Amino acid sequence: MHLYIAKRLAALVPILFGLTLIVFFIMALIPGDPALAILGAYATPENVARLNTQLGLDQPLPVQYVTWLTNLLQGDLGRSYSLNRPVLDEVLERFSATAILAGAALVLCTILGLLAGIVSAVRQYGLADKVVTLLVLVGISMPSFWLGLLLILFFAVELRWLPASGMYAIYGGGDLPDLLRHLVLPAVTLAAVATGVVARLTRSAMLEVLRQDFIRTARAKGLPERRVIYVHAFKAALVSIIPVVGIQAGFVLGGAVYIETVFQWPGIGRMLVQAISTRDILLVQGGVLVVAASYVLINLLVDVLQSVVDPRVKA
């Protein structure tokens, strides 16, 4: 196991290096001059040239990349033009809020998706299977941002049960119950599509396992049906389900960008939207790099977990 983990960690090095290349050069291709966005009304040719020199933007792109990568390896992502604070501090502060939202959505979609998929497989062609299939189809087909607006309209505006935006109440609050109340709507919205995907693939995996000989043997031995389903069949199906959950973790992180905008959640997705609008390249680079690196690390964790469930993966 330790050797397998070491190999996977070593494989991360070229992946993370490739991420830095992609992030840097895609940001460099964005049209416009950052100095113009920073200076605004003071953007005279002399001031623009002077600021480009101070920021190193007058250097060739390979030189800019090497400088940025060297600073990155030292834990320095630069300084945000628009916020006038270190990029790393801002990104970590915002990422903590995104981690709460994405983590809640991932837990929600995993639990609901697994339960729905198992029930649908066990009751194949029955009423429960048809209901779950319908709900899954609606969840996958409905745009997340539109679902979020509907939930705000119904639960926040009409019923006034839950807050419509923010992470905490503006006045008072700030405790765990306040956070949970603000978390419900964005987490449900973000988890909707992922729940449908997990449910569909769990159903397919469970149906395939339930047709295997060892399941018939377990039933022939007189084992309780609940034990056959949730111990023998589910454990075998996990090999196919775990990678799906890992992929949905990436979807949840990516979907946080527009969900945070809809619900005014102070996470890294909303920060990226604001940074792009102000042409704050260093802040965009830092935010995208942290999100991408997080997804890579999540996939490493998924691979390790899958190797625990199925030792053949390490072979």
Short descriptors:
315 residues, mainly alpha, 0% strand
The poorly predicted ranges are: none
The arrangement of helices and strands along the chain is: HHHHHHHHHHHH
Strand-residue proportion: under 5%
Tally of DSSP β-strands: 0
- Level of helix content? over 70%
Supply the number of helical segments: 12
Q: What is the C-alpha radius of gyration, as a whole number of Å?
A: 24 Å
Query: What is the residue-averaged pLDDT?
Result: 84
Q: Major sheet, described briefly?
A: none
Briefly note the structural class of the backbone: mainly alpha
Rounded to the nearest angstrom, the distance between the terminal CA atoms is 11 Å
Q: What overall geometry do the principal axes of the alpha carbons give?
A: globular
Give me the secondary-structure topology.
Elements: H1 2-28, H2 34-39, H3 45-55, H4 61-73, H5 87-122, H6 127-141, H7 144-158, H8 176-210, H9 213-220, H10 225-263, H11 268-277, H12 281-309
What does this structure look like?
77% of the residues lie in helices and 0% in strands. It is mainly alpha-helical and 315 residues long. The N and C termini lie close together (11 Å). The model has no long low-confidence stretch (mean pLDDT 84).
